[in-house]
């Protein structure tokens, strides 16, 4: 075991022993002896280092439950005290409500109370906003401070939560109450474990690394995405915002002010996102009816971190071919909420040099209905 004074080294050694099959009770005693003042930030840092050393992310995720059980006594000392407007207060309050919903669903399935089941399912569908706020805002800020692996692990668990919820909706439609009761129990177990890790490790780590102005901006972006379980207290604190001169932007084919350019891009009937040559998100427009959630927190974020782990290999394949110059387009189309969504990626090049990629997303449901010709204005 590493030197007694090196708490991170000792923690890493203990988790490696767990990875190799050591018993929890044996490791627990060692942990109590040498890591009485363990901080959540140290756990997060060590998780990142272990993944870099070759332990698969999925295995670290499984080990999380084990090593959190080992270190529970030290972690329980961590208390988060923030005002009610604060994003972490909002997330933790939502955790309580979402756990309550899962428990109530289990009880309602046992009683075959279809009216209550449908009401709870409605709340569960709205709860997607909770996970979107974490993935697109909180995780983005953590990544900017070098905390990358813990958010990735939590996002993986979000997808597992979504899988169970999808199965729940199917069982509700088919009125299979026994299967629904079992799924509700599994959801409650997963949420309990997941929320504990966020409340006791991820959130204290975020509180340690993020600045006050970042929390204020994060709350503004929380408001943009919206809420699912309750309406939080309004934010009374205002961030200090920089004022930048607009000036004129000169192009080869004309010139525009920053105000005009931004308004024009936002007026387009498509969502666009630009990723630079380093795979970092640099810009997105704010179209009237945005299809997918985009928040300012993703600016500067690696595009790979903006997607679930299961699809990162596709993102990398597209970027690889664009950079090599072997492909000039990648396109997909999906059905979402009864609408047909068309998603396209194009390489952005200047004089043959790759400078980034643009994503264009469009709702083409009504476009697909067009037939014949229309040559006259039919306004009334």
What are the defining features of this structure?
single chain, 380 residues, alpha+beta, Beta-Lactamase, 3 domains, 5-stranded antiparallel sheet, two-stranded antiparallel ribbon, 13 helices, globular
Strand content: 5-15%
Number of helices: 13
- Share of helical residues: 40-55%
CATH uppermost class of the largest domain: Mainly Alpha
Determine the CATH superfamily of the largest domain.
nmb1532 protein domain like
Structure classification = alpha+beta
Tell me the CATH architecture of the largest domain: Up-down Bundle
Radius of gyration: 24 Å
Mean pLDDT score: 85
> Kindly, what is the distance between the CA atoms of the first and last residues, rounded to a whole number of angstroms?
81 Å
Write out the strand line-up for the largest beta sheet, numbering strands in chain order.
Answer: 4-3-7-6-5
Report low-confidence residues grouped into runs of 5 or more. 1-5, 238-245
Characterization of the model:
The protein has 380 residues and is an alpha+beta fold. The chain is 54% helix and 13% strand. It contains 13 helices and 7 strands. A hairpin with a 2-residue loop joins strand 1 and strand 2. It is globular, with a radius of gyration of 24 Å. The N and C termini lie far apart (81 Å). Mean pLDDT is 85; it is low at 1-5 and 238-245.
Topology of helices and strands:
Layout: H1 7-19, H2 24-34, H3 40-52, H4 57-70, H5 72-75, H6 87-111, H7 114-126, H8 128-144, H9 149-174, H10 177-209, H11 212-225, E1 248-251, E2 254-257, H12 258-267, E3 271-276, E4 281-284, H13 312-324, E5 330-336, E6 339-350, E7 353-363
Antiparallel strand pairs: 1-2, 3-4, 3-7, 5-6, 6-7
